[in-house]
Prior knowledge:
By secondary structure, the protein is of the alpha/beta class. The chain has helices at 12-23, 35-48, 59-62, 75-83, 119-126, 141-145, 162-173, 189-206; strands at 3-7, 27-32, 53-58, 68-71, 93-96, 101-104, 107-110, 131-134, 153-157, 178-182. α1 links the parallel β1 (3-7) and β2. The chain starts with a strand and ends in a 12-residue tail after the last helix. Bound molecules: NADP nicotinamide-adenine-dinucleotide phosphate.
Amino acid sequence: MATLAFVGGTGAAGYGLALRFAAAGDAVRIGSRTEARALATAARLRAALPGARATGHTNADAVAADGCVFVTVPFAGLATALDALHDRLDGRLVVDPVVPLVFEGGIFGLAPVAGAPSVGEWLHARLPRSRVVSAFKNLPADELASLEEQLEGDVVLCGEDREARAAVAAMVCRLPGLRPVDAGGIANARYIEAITALLVNLNRRRRARTSIRILGIG
Length: 218
Ligand SMILES: NC(=O)c1ccc[n+]([C@@H]2O[C@H](COP(=O)([O-])OP(=O)(O)OC[C@H]3O[C@@H](n4cnc5c(N)ncnc54)[C@H](OP(=O)(O)O)[C@@H]3O)[C@@H](O)[C@H]2O)c1
């Protein structure tokens, strides 16, 4: 079983992913800018899932242990969060679920990412010594956080390192109901992020909770 760290794991996405991986038997390290918030979130996770191996830390301490790191913070705070980690992500597998959503003129869209067409590509350039894989961008956190709900959908993932993509695909396979879809290079992150904008607009319009399934690939 793996050890997974969640930078900003006190939020909806980090908590939901941590909960599901804890249910699959992994040890999860919840990170926060404030240790007390991380400790409270880890305690909430253990209450929801008795026996879960979940601990709370500052973000820097959360990533200090070996293992994969999820960056589950809003894009607006991502650069600051990374700066605080210094070189601790060097050589690491970094999973990027970040979508730069904005709500403007009655519709969700994507905020421009300075210097890159997507957050995934920005992160790949920002962390040249890490193995960045964009994934889990299309899964609603509410669904992840409710263990009674059966997960359903495809997790489209992309990144420049084939082995890193395979490692994340194997992680996805540990979550019942989800299927990994390897989309290849990191340039596909721009399209994965755009799909999320469509999904949240559908959710708002139909009071639904949507995810995606790719047909035609067996
Ligand atoms: N929510 C979803 O359904 C969903 C689905 C797919 C992808 N995502 C992506 O996952 C990421 C996290 O989403 P979320 O809904 O969990 O976000 P969130 O609740 O707004 O934020 C997550 C955590 O990030 C930390 N944070 C907030 N602002 C920060 C800043 N300026 N600098 C550093 N840390 C900051 C906070 O932790 P502390 O205050 O404890 O440090 C917060 O609890 C986002 O990029 C989002 O696009 C979300």
